[in-house]
# Entry
Amino acid sequence: MKPVRVLIVDDSATMRTLLSAVLRLDPAIEVVGHAADPLEARAKIKELNPDVITLDVEMPNMNGLEFLEKIMRLRPMPVIMVSSLTSRDATATITALEIGAFDCISKASFSDDRAFGTLQATVKAAARAQIRPLATNQPSDAREQPAANADYVPNGKVVAIGSSTGGVEALITVLSQFPENCPPTVITQHMPAAFTKSFAERLNRMSRPRVSEAVDGAPLTTGHIYLAPGGATHLEISGPGQLRCRLRSTDPVNGHRPSVDVLFASVAKATGSKSVGAILTGMGRDGAAGLLHMRQAGAGTIGQDEATSLVYGMPRVAFEVGAVERQAPLDKIASHILALTRSNSNGAKNVLPRTL
# Structure
């Protein structure tokens, strides 16, 4: 196989040198060029035709978001955002992922040698990703749209969702379809610690239910969505009785903290069949074992299909081990979840619909 051709775009010469050195350690990656700003990068893209671009957020002449939007509209290709750990950069990075960036890497992470392998793996996965042009109609505040599922009444089940690469766009798509009185929903999205607060705030603005970072001890309530904080802890659910969020400072699982497997396993233990699990786009296998625990406990389980996954990694492994009851395209996953968590006045059992 030909090596993945990478163009590095960053106004810092030091960062360009560091990224080049890290990527060149992998023989499957070739750094074909550098650019100090988007204007130079535009010329280099035409000249070098790279497979993947790494892109800084704050740069002279044109910021990374403006440049990313032009790329995704005019020449869609895999872009990995490399940003600082500032609140401003965190918000900008979330927006970049929403626009269509493949993933985000924190510059501060390069103080840890393990980040080198992460960057290399991310670049190679990006080269294989199904990049789509930027949609003409971008997601908007769900509260400004006509109410969906106005007749929805929850049946007491809990929803657990796991996602990784591509998860920003996927979660916005799913949660923007949830009604204000959605079932209690817990989410683990692989994301650097500095970014989860901004992402929770973004989801809260775009969703009818309340969305916030999970807090240790918080009770799970109807109409509330809880996002696992990044970095230091795993999000678990404790029960029986009043279900609560628990943040545990234990070792990473599958290389991740928070881990989807940890969340799903805790939901299976605390709720048994009174839950629904959904695994969305992402690299690796995190979540497959936990989702299998949920299905074995009687929960309904859903996996994003290959055609709509930016990276068909986590959903694929979950499907292959038998954890997924039904695969669905991204735009139908919310409908499947709501079908399984809707109260039936006639007492009939909720089942996944054959078609939607």
Observations:
- The chain has two domains: 4-128, 144-341.
- The mean pLDDT is 90.
- Residues 114-128 form the longest helix (15 residues).
- Residues 144-341 form a domain with the Rossmann fold fold (CATH 3.40.50.180).
